[in-house]
Specification:
about 270 residues, alpha/beta, six-stranded parallel beta sheet, homodimer, three-stranded mixed beta sheet
Chain lengths: ~270, ~270
Amino acid sequence: LPAELTIVGIGLIGASFALAVRDGFERIVALDPDEANGAFAVRRGMVDQRVDVIRPETDAILLACPSHLIADWIVDLADHPATVFDAGSVKQAIISEVHDRLGQVPGNYVPTHPIAGLEQSGPQSASADLFEGRTVILTPLASTDPDRLLHVTGWWQAAGAVVEEMDPARHDQVYARTSHLPHLLAFAYLAGIDPEDLHHTGGGFRDFSRIGGSDPQMWAGIFDRNRAALIAALDTFELDLAEFRRSIEAGDLARCRALIAAARKRREAPE
Amino acid sequence: LPAELTIVGIGLIGASFALAVRDGFERIVALDPDEANGAFAVRRGMVDQRVDVIRPETDAILLACPSHLIADWIVDLADHPATVFDAGSVKQAIISEVHDRLGQVPGNYVPTHPIAGLEQSGPQSASADLFEGRTVILTPLASTDPDRLLHVTGWWQAAGAVVEEMDPARHDQVYARTSHLPHLLAFAYLAGIDPEDLHHTGGGFRDFSRIGGSDPQMWAGIFDRNRAALIAALDTFELDLAEFRRSIEAGDLARCRALIAAARKRREAPE
Protein backbone atom coordinates (compact mmCIF):
# COMPACT_ATOMS: atom_id res chain seq x y z
CA LEU A 1 0.00 0.00 0.00
CA PRO A 2 1.60 3.32 -1.04
CA ALA A 3 1.72 5.69 1.89
CA GLU A 4 0.70 9.00 0.39
CA LEU A 5 -1.08 10.32 -2.67
CA THR A 6 -0.91 14.02 -3.47
CA ILE A 7 -3.62 15.40 -5.72
CA VAL A 8 -2.75 18.65 -7.46
CA GLY A 9 -6.04 20.38 -8.29
CA ILE A 10 -8.91 19.09 -6.18
CA GLY A 11 -11.69 19.79 -8.68
CA LEU A 12 -14.24 17.36 -10.10
CA ILE A 13 -11.65 14.86 -11.36
CA GLY A 14 -9.17 15.12 -8.48
CA ALA A 15 -11.83 14.86 -5.78
CA SER A 16 -13.62 11.98 -7.55
CA PHE A 17 -10.31 10.10 -7.79
CA ALA A 18 -9.70 10.71 -4.08
CA LEU A 19 -13.12 9.27 -3.23
CA ALA A 20 -12.64 6.32 -5.58
CA VAL A 21 -9.24 5.23 -4.20
CA ARG A 22 -9.75 6.27 -0.58
CA ASP A 23 -8.84 2.80 0.71
CA GLY A 24 -5.87 2.35 -1.62
CA PHE A 25 -3.64 4.91 0.09
CA GLU A 26 -2.78 5.48 3.72
CA ARG A 27 -3.09 9.17 3.25
CA ILE A 28 -4.36 11.55 0.56
CA VAL A 29 -3.43 15.23 0.51
CA ALA A 30 -4.57 18.02 -1.80
CA LEU A 31 -2.67 20.94 -3.24
CA ASP A 32 -4.92 23.58 -4.79
CA PRO A 33 -4.54 27.37 -5.04
CA ASP A 34 -8.33 27.55 -4.57
CA GLU A 35 -8.60 27.54 -0.78
CA ALA A 36 -12.35 26.94 -0.84
CA ASN A 37 -11.99 23.77 -2.90
CA GLY A 38 -9.26 22.42 -0.65
CA ALA A 39 -11.18 23.24 2.52
CA PHE A 40 -14.31 21.61 1.11
CA ALA A 41 -12.40 18.42 0.26
CA VAL A 42 -10.96 18.23 3.79
CA ARG A 43 -14.31 18.96 5.43
CA ARG A 44 -15.98 16.18 3.48
CA GLY A 45 -13.22 13.74 4.29
CA MET A 46 -12.24 13.40 0.63
CA VAL A 47 -8.63 14.13 1.55
CA ASP A 48 -6.78 14.14 4.86
CA GLN A 49 -5.33 17.60 4.58
CA ARG A 50 -4.30 20.47 2.38
CA VAL A 51 -0.64 21.08 1.58
CA ASP A 52 1.04 24.11 0.04
CA VAL A 53 3.97 22.26 -1.49
CA ILE A 54 4.62 18.75 -2.74
CA ARG A 55 6.15 16.84 0.16
CA PRO A 56 9.37 14.93 -0.56
CA GLU A 57 7.97 11.76 1.02
CA THR A 58 4.79 11.52 -1.09
CA ASP A 59 4.60 8.35 -3.23
CA ALA A 60 2.17 9.28 -5.96
CA ILE A 61 1.15 12.58 -7.49
CA LEU A 62 -1.97 13.05 -9.61
CA LEU A 63 -1.91 16.24 -11.67
CA ALA A 64 -5.60 17.05 -11.98
CA CYS A 65 -5.06 20.75 -12.64
CA PRO A 66 -5.91 22.62 -15.89
CA SER A 67 -4.07 21.24 -18.94
CA HIS A 68 -1.92 24.30 -19.53
CA LEU A 69 -0.30 23.91 -16.09
CA ILE A 70 0.56 20.21 -16.31
CA ALA A 71 3.88 20.44 -18.19
CA ASP A 72 5.28 22.84 -15.58
CA TRP A 73 4.55 20.32 -12.84
CA ILE A 74 6.10 17.40 -14.73
CA VAL A 75 9.26 19.42 -15.26
CA ASP A 76 9.37 20.49 -11.60
CA LEU A 77 8.81 16.92 -10.41
CA ALA A 78 11.28 15.24 -12.79
CA ASP A 79 13.61 14.30 -9.94
CA HIS A 80 10.97 13.56 -7.34
CA PRO A 81 10.90 9.90 -6.27
CA ALA A 82 7.09 9.76 -6.56
CA THR A 83 5.17 8.37 -9.51
CA VAL A 84 3.59 11.30 -11.36
CA PHE A 85 0.49 10.90 -13.50
CA ASP A 86 -2.04 13.36 -14.87
CA ALA A 87 -5.65 13.67 -15.92
CA GLY A 88 -5.07 16.07 -18.81
CA SER A 89 -7.27 15.94 -21.91
CA VAL A 90 -4.15 16.57 -24.02
CA LYS A 91 -1.20 14.19 -24.16
CA GLN A 92 1.30 14.67 -27.03
CA ALA A 93 1.28 18.44 -26.64
CA ILE A 94 2.19 18.13 -22.95
CA ILE A 95 4.82 15.48 -23.68
CA SER A 96 6.38 17.63 -26.42
CA GLU A 97 6.57 20.65 -24.16
CA VAL A 98 8.27 18.64 -21.42
CA HIS A 99 10.67 17.12 -23.94
CA ASP A 100 11.53 20.55 -25.34
CA ARG A 101 12.41 21.78 -21.89
CA LEU A 102 14.24 18.77 -20.43
CA GLY A 103 15.59 17.09 -23.56
CA GLN A 104 13.67 13.98 -22.42
CA VAL A 105 10.46 12.95 -20.70
CA PRO A 106 11.07 11.85 -17.09
CA GLY A 107 10.59 8.12 -16.43
CA ASN A 108 8.53 8.88 -13.31
CA TYR A 109 5.74 10.47 -15.42
CA VAL A 110 2.91 8.28 -16.73
CA PRO A 111 0.58 10.20 -19.13
CA THR A 112 -3.09 9.38 -18.55
CA HIS A 113 -6.46 10.80 -19.60
CA PRO A 114 -9.72 9.66 -17.98
CA ILE A 115 -12.64 9.93 -20.43
CA ALA A 116 -15.02 11.11 -17.78
CA GLY A 117 -16.27 14.52 -16.97
CA LEU A 118 -19.29 16.65 -16.48
CA GLU A 119 -20.14 20.20 -17.37
CA GLN A 120 -20.22 20.73 -13.63
CA SER A 121 -16.87 21.34 -12.02
CA GLY A 122 -15.39 21.50 -8.54
CA PRO A 123 -15.22 18.98 -5.70
CA GLN A 124 -18.91 19.69 -4.96
CA SER A 125 -19.78 17.63 -8.05
CA ALA A 126 -17.37 14.79 -7.29
CA SER A 127 -18.49 11.21 -6.84
CA ALA A 128 -16.71 7.95 -6.01
CA ASP A 129 -18.13 6.27 -9.13
CA LEU A 130 -17.26 8.94 -11.73
CA PHE A 131 -14.74 6.56 -13.35
CA GLU A 132 -16.80 3.39 -12.94
CA GLY A 133 -16.73 1.57 -16.28
CA ARG A 134 -15.22 4.61 -18.05
CA THR A 135 -12.15 4.43 -20.24
CA VAL A 136 -8.84 5.88 -19.12
CA ILE A 137 -6.33 6.35 -21.93
CA LEU A 138 -2.67 5.76 -21.09
CA THR A 139 -0.06 6.99 -23.56
CA PRO A 140 3.21 5.59 -22.17
CA LEU A 141 6.53 6.38 -23.85
CA ALA A 142 9.70 4.37 -24.28
CA SER A 143 11.08 6.40 -21.38
CA THR A 144 8.19 5.57 -19.03
CA ASP A 145 9.24 3.39 -16.08
CA PRO A 146 7.40 0.06 -16.55
CA ASP A 147 6.80 -0.49 -12.84
CA ARG A 148 5.25 2.94 -12.48
CA LEU A 149 3.09 2.27 -15.55
CA LEU A 150 1.78 -0.87 -13.79
CA HIS A 151 1.07 1.06 -10.61
CA VAL A 152 -0.83 3.82 -12.38
CA THR A 153 -2.79 1.23 -14.37
CA GLY A 154 -3.73 -0.46 -11.12
CA TRP A 155 -4.84 2.80 -9.46
CA TRP A 156 -7.15 3.70 -12.32
CA GLN A 157 -8.54 0.17 -12.31
CA ALA A 158 -9.08 0.44 -8.56
CA ALA A 159 -11.12 3.56 -9.34
CA GLY A 160 -13.33 1.39 -11.56
CA ALA A 161 -11.92 2.46 -14.93
CA VAL A 162 -11.06 0.39 -18.00
CA VAL A 163 -7.50 1.20 -19.04
CA GLU A 164 -6.51 1.44 -22.69
CA GLU A 165 -3.15 2.35 -24.26
CA MET A 166 -2.84 4.66 -27.23
CA ASP A 167 -0.25 6.62 -29.16
CA PRO A 168 -0.11 10.16 -27.70
CA ALA A 169 -0.17 12.03 -31.04
CA ARG A 170 -3.13 9.96 -32.22
CA HIS A 171 -4.81 10.60 -28.86
CA ASP A 172 -4.61 14.36 -29.38
CA GLN A 173 -6.03 14.15 -32.91
CA VAL A 174 -8.89 11.83 -31.97
CA TYR A 175 -9.92 13.85 -28.93
CA ALA A 176 -9.58 17.11 -30.85
CA ARG A 177 -12.33 15.71 -33.11
CA THR A 178 -14.54 13.89 -30.60
CA SER A 179 -14.30 16.19 -27.60
CA HIS A 180 -12.43 19.48 -28.04
CA LEU A 181 -14.09 20.54 -31.30
CA PRO A 182 -17.65 19.84 -30.02
CA HIS A 183 -16.90 21.96 -26.97
CA LEU A 184 -15.55 24.77 -29.14
CA LEU A 185 -18.61 24.62 -31.41
CA ALA A 186 -21.00 24.58 -28.47
CA PHE A 187 -19.31 27.65 -26.98
CA ALA A 188 -19.29 29.54 -30.30
CA TYR A 189 -22.92 28.56 -30.86
CA LEU A 190 -24.03 29.80 -27.44
CA ALA A 191 -22.28 33.13 -28.02
CA GLY A 192 -24.93 33.89 -30.67
CA ILE A 193 -27.95 32.96 -28.56
CA ASP A 194 -30.33 35.70 -27.52
CA PRO A 195 -31.41 35.32 -23.84
CA GLU A 196 -35.04 35.53 -25.02
CA ASP A 197 -34.41 32.46 -27.17
CA LEU A 198 -34.12 30.27 -24.10
CA HIS A 199 -37.90 30.37 -23.68
CA HIS A 200 -38.08 28.54 -26.99
CA THR A 201 -35.84 25.55 -26.79
CA GLY A 202 -36.46 21.83 -26.89
CA GLY A 203 -34.51 18.71 -26.06
CA GLY A 204 -32.28 19.19 -29.11
CA PHE A 205 -30.96 22.51 -27.86
CA ARG A 206 -30.52 21.19 -24.34
CA ASP A 207 -28.41 18.19 -25.35
CA PHE A 208 -26.47 19.99 -28.07
CA SER A 209 -25.47 22.86 -25.81
CA ARG A 210 -24.97 20.95 -22.56
CA ILE A 211 -21.17 20.89 -22.94
CA GLY A 212 -21.33 24.65 -23.50
CA GLY A 213 -21.79 24.90 -19.74
CA SER A 214 -18.27 23.56 -19.11
CA ASP A 215 -15.53 25.28 -17.15
CA PRO A 216 -13.84 28.21 -18.98
CA GLN A 217 -10.46 27.87 -17.24
CA MET A 218 -10.21 24.17 -18.02
CA TRP A 219 -11.32 24.47 -21.64
CA ALA A 220 -9.24 27.52 -22.51
CA GLY A 221 -6.28 25.44 -21.28
CA ILE A 222 -7.23 22.41 -23.38
CA PHE A 223 -7.77 24.49 -26.53
CA ASP A 224 -4.42 26.17 -25.98
CA ARG A 225 -2.48 22.97 -25.38
CA ASN A 226 -4.08 21.03 -28.22
CA ARG A 227 -4.02 23.97 -30.61
CA ALA A 228 -2.54 22.22 -33.66
CA ALA A 229 -4.89 19.23 -33.65
CA LEU A 230 -7.89 21.39 -32.76
CA ILE A 231 -7.25 23.88 -35.55
CA ALA A 232 -6.87 20.97 -38.00
CA ALA A 233 -10.23 19.57 -36.88
CA LEU A 234 -11.75 23.04 -37.12
CA ASP A 235 -10.45 23.42 -40.69
CA THR A 236 -12.21 20.19 -41.66
CA PHE A 237 -15.40 21.30 -39.95
CA GLU A 238 -15.39 24.66 -41.73
CA LEU A 239 -15.02 22.98 -45.11
CA ASP A 240 -17.90 20.62 -44.34
CA LEU A 241 -20.05 23.48 -43.04
CA ALA A 242 -19.33 25.48 -46.21
CA GLU A 243 -20.61 22.55 -48.29
CA PHE A 244 -23.86 22.48 -46.33
CA ARG A 245 -24.17 26.26 -46.66
CA ARG A 246 -23.73 26.08 -50.43
CA SER A 247 -26.41 23.41 -50.81
CA ILE A 248 -28.85 25.47 -48.71
CA GLU A 249 -28.09 28.76 -50.47
CA ALA A 250 -28.49 27.04 -53.85
CA GLY A 251 -31.82 25.54 -52.77
CA ASP A 252 -30.38 22.15 -53.71
CA LEU A 253 -32.55 19.91 -51.55
CA ALA A 254 -31.26 16.66 -53.02
CA ARG A 255 -27.66 17.63 -52.30
CA CYS A 256 -28.50 18.82 -48.79
CA ARG A 257 -30.39 15.60 -48.07
CA ALA A 258 -27.42 13.56 -49.29
CA LEU A 259 -25.01 15.53 -47.07
CA ILE A 260 -27.27 15.00 -44.05
CA ALA A 261 -27.68 11.30 -44.80
CA ALA A 262 -23.90 10.85 -45.08
CA ALA A 263 -23.29 12.78 -41.85
CA ARG A 264 -25.92 10.81 -39.97
CA LYS A 265 -24.26 7.55 -41.05
CA ARG A 266 -21.01 8.61 -39.38
CA ARG A 267 -22.72 8.34 -36.07
CA GLU A 268 -24.13 4.88 -36.60
CA ALA A 269 -20.78 3.01 -36.60
CA PRO A 270 -19.53 1.14 -33.52
CA GLU A 271 -19.97 3.64 -30.62
CA LEU B 1 -67.14 15.84 -31.97
CA PRO B 2 -65.66 16.38 -35.43
CA ALA B 3 -66.31 13.35 -37.59
CA GLU B 4 -63.05 12.86 -39.42
CA LEU B 5 -59.41 13.86 -39.09
CA THR B 6 -57.06 13.33 -42.01
CA ILE B 7 -53.34 13.19 -41.22
CA VAL B 8 -51.06 13.91 -44.14
CA GLY B 9 -47.74 12.23 -43.38
CA ILE B 10 -48.05 9.52 -40.76
CA GLY B 11 -44.51 9.75 -39.38
CA LEU B 12 -43.45 10.34 -35.79
CA ILE B 13 -45.49 13.53 -35.34
CA GLY B 14 -48.56 12.49 -37.33
CA ALA B 15 -48.85 9.08 -35.70
CA SER B 16 -48.23 10.47 -32.20
CA PHE B 17 -50.98 13.04 -32.75
CA ALA B 18 -53.34 10.27 -33.92
CA LEU B 19 -52.62 8.29 -30.74
CA ALA B 20 -53.01 11.36 -28.54
CA VAL B 21 -56.42 12.46 -29.91
CA ARG B 22 -57.81 9.01 -30.73
CA ASP B 23 -60.98 9.65 -28.71
CA GLY B 24 -61.47 13.19 -30.00
CA PHE B 25 -62.50 12.17 -33.52
CA GLU B 26 -64.96 9.62 -34.80
CA ARG B 27 -62.52 8.58 -37.43
CA ILE B 28 -58.86 9.19 -38.28
CA VAL B 29 -57.43 8.49 -41.71
CA ALA B 30 -53.86 8.74 -43.00
CA LEU B 31 -52.52 9.91 -46.32
CA ASP B 32 -48.86 9.03 -46.87
CA PRO B 33 -46.94 8.15 -50.02
CA ASP B 34 -44.93 5.73 -47.88
CA GLU B 35 -47.13 2.63 -48.02
CA ALA B 36 -45.24 0.88 -45.24
CA ASN B 37 -45.82 3.76 -42.78
CA GLY B 38 -49.53 3.90 -43.64
CA ALA B 39 -49.94 0.13 -43.34
CA PHE B 40 -48.11 0.13 -40.01
CA ALA B 41 -50.37 2.87 -38.62
CA VAL B 42 -53.51 0.95 -39.67
CA ARG B 43 -52.21 -2.36 -38.31
CA ARG B 44 -51.47 -0.79 -34.93
CA GLY B 45 -54.88 0.86 -34.80
CA MET B 46 -53.35 4.34 -34.84
CA VAL B 47 -55.64 5.29 -37.72
CA ASP B 48 -58.75 3.70 -39.15
CA GLN B 49 -57.60 3.51 -42.74
CA ARG B 50 -55.31 4.83 -45.42
CA VAL B 51 -56.61 7.17 -48.11
CA ASP B 52 -55.04 8.22 -51.39
CA VAL B 53 -56.75 11.59 -51.64
CA ILE B 54 -58.21 14.09 -49.20
CA ARG B 55 -61.90 13.28 -48.89
CA PRO B 56 -64.33 16.20 -49.35
CA GLU B 57 -66.19 15.28 -46.14
CA THR B 58 -63.16 15.33 -43.80
CA ASP B 59 -63.41 17.96 -41.04
CA ALA B 60 -59.80 18.50 -40.00
CA ILE B 61 -56.52 18.04 -41.82
CA LEU B 62 -53.14 17.89 -40.07
CA LEU B 63 -50.23 18.46 -42.42
CA ALA B 64 -47.44 16.48 -40.74
CA CYS B 65 -45.41 16.03 -43.90
CA PRO B 66 -41.90 17.49 -44.56
CA SER B 67 -41.80 21.30 -44.36
CA HIS B 68 -41.06 21.88 -48.04
CA LEU B 69 -44.35 20.18 -49.03
CA ILE B 70 -46.67 22.05 -46.66
CA ALA B 71 -47.31 25.19 -48.73
CA ASP B 72 -48.48 23.09 -51.71
CA TRP B 73 -51.07 21.41 -49.52
CA ILE B 74 -52.33 24.68 -48.04
CA VAL B 75 -52.78 26.10 -51.54
CA ASP B 76 -54.56 22.94 -52.75
CA LEU B 77 -56.86 22.91 -49.72
CA ALA B 78 -57.70 26.64 -49.74
CA ASP B 79 -61.33 25.97 -50.71
CA HIS B 80 -61.79 22.79 -48.69
CA PRO B 81 -64.35 23.14 -45.88
CA ALA B 82 -62.03 21.40 -43.39
CA THR B 83 -59.82 23.16 -40.87
CA VAL B 84 -56.22 22.78 -42.01
CA PHE B 85 -53.28 22.95 -39.59
CA ASP B 86 -49.68 21.85 -39.82
CA ALA B 87 -46.75 20.65 -37.73
CA GLY B 88 -44.05 22.41 -39.73
CA SER B 89 -40.92 23.71 -38.00
CA VAL B 90 -41.08 26.79 -40.24
CA LYS B 91 -43.95 29.26 -40.20
CA GLN B 92 -43.37 32.66 -41.87
CA ALA B 93 -41.61 31.08 -44.84
CA ILE B 94 -44.59 28.79 -45.49
CA ILE B 95 -47.07 31.63 -44.99
CA SER B 96 -45.13 33.87 -47.40
CA GLU B 97 -45.05 31.20 -50.06
CA VAL B 98 -48.80 30.62 -49.78
CA HIS B 99 -49.42 34.38 -49.87
CA ASP B 100 -47.26 34.78 -52.97
CA ARG B 101 -49.26 32.14 -54.77
CA LEU B 102 -52.81 32.98 -53.68
CA GLY B 103 -52.54 36.70 -52.93
CA GLN B 104 -53.77 35.81 -49.42
CA VAL B 105 -53.53 33.12 -46.77
CA PRO B 106 -56.70 31.02 -46.59
CA GLY B 107 -58.79 31.48 -43.44
CA ASN B 108 -59.12 27.73 -43.01
CA TYR B 109 -55.39 27.37 -42.33
CA VAL B 110 -54.06 27.63 -38.77
CA PRO B 111 -50.22 27.62 -38.63
CA THR B 112 -48.87 25.50 -35.76
CA HIS B 113 -45.52 24.06 -34.68
CA PRO B 114 -45.25 21.45 -31.93
CA ILE B 115 -41.89 21.73 -30.12
CA ALA B 116 -41.54 18.00 -29.79
CA GLY B 117 -39.50 15.57 -31.74
CA LEU B 118 -36.92 12.90 -31.59
CA GLU B 119 -33.99 11.96 -33.75
CA GLN B 120 -36.00 8.80 -34.44
CA SER B 121 -38.62 9.10 -37.12
CA GLY B 122 -41.54 7.11 -38.45
CA PRO B 123 -44.75 5.84 -36.82
CA GLN B 124 -42.71 3.08 -35.15
CA SER B 125 -41.35 5.70 -32.73
CA ALA B 126 -44.73 7.35 -32.09
CA SER B 127 -46.26 7.60 -28.63
CA ALA B 128 -49.51 8.99 -27.26
CA ASP B 129 -47.64 11.24 -24.82
CA LEU B 130 -45.12 12.83 -27.21
CA PHE B 131 -46.83 16.23 -26.79
CA GLU B 132 -47.57 15.89 -23.07
CA GLY B 133 -46.49 19.12 -21.41
CA ARG B 134 -44.65 20.28 -24.55
CA THR B 135 -45.17 23.68 -26.14
CA VAL B 136 -47.06 24.06 -29.41
CA ILE B 137 -46.51 27.42 -31.10
CA LEU B 138 -49.46 28.91 -32.98
CA THR B 139 -48.78 31.81 -35.34
CA PRO B 140 -52.28 32.92 -36.38
CA LEU B 141 -52.75 35.71 -38.93
CA ALA B 142 -55.39 38.42 -39.28
CA SER B 143 -56.93 36.20 -41.96
CA THR B 144 -57.14 33.12 -39.72
CA ASP B 145 -60.74 32.10 -38.93
CA PRO B 146 -61.12 32.62 -35.16
CA ASP B 147 -63.36 29.58 -34.68
CA ARG B 148 -60.88 27.34 -36.42
CA LEU B 149 -58.10 28.82 -34.29
CA LEU B 150 -60.08 27.81 -31.20
CA HIS B 151 -60.62 24.30 -32.52
CA VAL B 152 -56.97 23.74 -33.35
CA THR B 153 -55.97 25.12 -29.94
CA GLY B 154 -58.33 22.65 -28.32
CA TRP B 155 -56.98 19.70 -30.30
CA TRP B 156 -53.38 20.38 -29.33
CA GLN B 157 -54.46 20.85 -25.72
CA ALA B 158 -56.33 17.54 -25.91
CA ALA B 159 -53.00 16.03 -27.02
CA GLY B 160 -51.49 17.32 -23.77
CA ALA B 161 -49.66 20.33 -25.19
CA VAL B 162 -49.34 23.85 -23.86
CA VAL B 163 -50.34 26.28 -26.60
CA GLU B 164 -48.52 29.59 -27.09
CA GLU B 165 -49.01 32.26 -29.74
CA MET B 166 -46.12 33.97 -31.49
CA ASP B 167 -45.40 36.20 -34.47
CA PRO B 168 -44.53 33.95 -37.44
CA ALA B 169 -41.43 35.88 -38.56
CA ARG B 170 -40.08 35.93 -35.02
CA HIS B 171 -40.85 32.22 -34.78
CA ASP B 172 -38.66 31.48 -37.78
CA GLN B 173 -35.76 33.55 -36.44
CA VAL B 174 -35.91 32.09 -32.95
CA TYR B 175 -36.12 28.49 -34.15
CA ALA B 176 -33.41 29.08 -36.74
CA ARG B 177 -31.15 29.86 -33.77
CA THR B 178 -32.38 27.35 -31.18
CA SER B 179 -33.17 24.36 -33.38
CA HIS B 180 -32.26 24.60 -37.07
CA LEU B 181 -28.69 25.91 -36.59
CA PRO B 182 -27.78 23.27 -33.94
CA HIS B 183 -29.00 20.57 -36.33
CA LEU B 184 -26.95 22.03 -39.17
CA LEU B 185 -23.84 22.24 -36.97
CA ALA B 186 -24.30 18.70 -35.71
CA PHE B 187 -24.58 17.40 -39.29
CA ALA B 188 -21.53 19.37 -40.49
CA TYR B 189 -19.60 18.22 -37.43
CA LEU B 190 -20.41 14.56 -38.00
CA ALA B 191 -19.30 14.82 -41.64
CA GLY B 192 -15.73 15.24 -40.37
CA ILE B 193 -15.77 12.32 -37.95
CA ASP B 194 -13.58 9.32 -38.70
CA PRO B 195 -15.42 6.01 -38.05
CA GLU B 196 -12.48 4.94 -35.87
CA ASP B 197 -13.12 7.99 -33.68
CA LEU B 198 -16.35 6.46 -32.41
CA HIS B 199 -14.37 4.12 -30.19
CA HIS B 200 -13.17 7.20 -28.36
CA THR B 201 -16.19 9.24 -27.44
CA GLY B 202 -17.72 10.24 -24.15
CA GLY B 203 -21.02 11.64 -22.98
CA GLY B 204 -20.19 15.05 -24.46
CA PHE B 205 -19.98 13.68 -27.98
CA ARG B 206 -23.10 11.58 -27.51
CA ASP B 207 -25.29 14.48 -26.40
CA PHE B 208 -23.79 17.05 -28.76
CA SER B 209 -24.26 14.84 -31.81
CA ARG B 210 -27.57 13.21 -30.91
CA ILE B 211 -29.58 15.52 -33.17
CA GLY B 212 -27.16 14.62 -35.98
CA GLY B 213 -29.08 11.36 -36.21
CA SER B 214 -32.22 13.17 -37.39
CA ASP B 215 -34.13 12.51 -40.59
CA PRO B 216 -32.44 13.86 -43.78
CA GLN B 217 -35.66 14.39 -45.75
CA MET B 218 -37.27 16.36 -42.96
CA TRP B 219 -34.22 18.51 -42.20
CA ALA B 220 -33.28 19.28 -45.78
CA GLY B 221 -36.86 20.56 -46.10
CA ILE B 222 -36.62 22.72 -42.96
CA PHE B 223 -33.24 24.20 -43.99
CA ASP B 224 -34.64 24.97 -47.42
CA ARG B 225 -37.84 26.60 -46.17
CA ASN B 226 -36.18 28.62 -43.43
CA ARG B 227 -33.17 29.53 -45.56
CA ALA B 228 -33.07 33.29 -44.86
CA ALA B 229 -33.29 33.04 -41.06
CA LEU B 230 -30.96 30.04 -40.96
CA ILE B 231 -28.28 31.73 -43.07
CA ALA B 232 -28.52 34.80 -40.83
CA ALA B 233 -28.01 32.62 -37.75
CA LEU B 234 -25.14 30.86 -39.50
CA ASP B 235 -23.48 34.20 -40.30
CA THR B 236 -23.57 35.11 -36.61
CA PHE B 237 -22.19 31.73 -35.65
CA GLU B 238 -19.31 32.00 -38.13
CA LEU B 239 -18.32 35.39 -36.76
CA ASP B 240 -18.36 34.06 -33.21
CA LEU B 241 -16.42 30.96 -34.21
CA ALA B 242 -13.82 33.13 -35.95
CA GLU B 243 -13.32 35.06 -32.70
CA PHE B 244 -12.69 31.84 -30.80
CA ARG B 245 -10.29 30.68 -33.53
CA ARG B 246 -8.33 33.92 -33.34
CA SER B 247 -7.94 33.69 -29.58
CA ILE B 248 -6.73 30.08 -29.86
CA GLU B 249 -4.35 30.75 -32.73
CA ALA B 250 -2.93 33.75 -30.87
CA GLY B 251 -2.46 31.65 -27.73
CA ASP B 252 -4.50 34.27 -25.91
CA LEU B 253 -5.76 32.19 -22.99
CA ALA B 254 -7.32 35.10 -21.12
CA ARG B 255 -9.34 36.13 -24.16
CA CYS B 256 -10.40 32.54 -24.86
CA ARG B 257 -11.44 32.06 -21.24
CA ALA B 258 -13.50 35.27 -21.38
CA LEU B 259 -15.23 34.15 -24.58
CA ILE B 260 -16.07 30.77 -23.04
CA ALA B 261 -17.31 32.38 -19.84
CA ALA B 262 -19.58 34.74 -21.79
CA ALA B 263 -20.92 31.89 -23.94
CA ARG B 264 -21.59 29.70 -20.94
CA LYS B 265 -23.61 32.50 -19.32
CA ARG B 266 -25.97 32.55 -22.29
CA ARG B 267 -27.17 29.14 -21.29
CA GLU B 268 -27.81 30.01 -17.67
CA ALA B 269 -30.74 32.37 -18.27
CA PRO B 270 -34.35 31.21 -17.84
CA GLU B 271 -34.57 27.84 -19.73
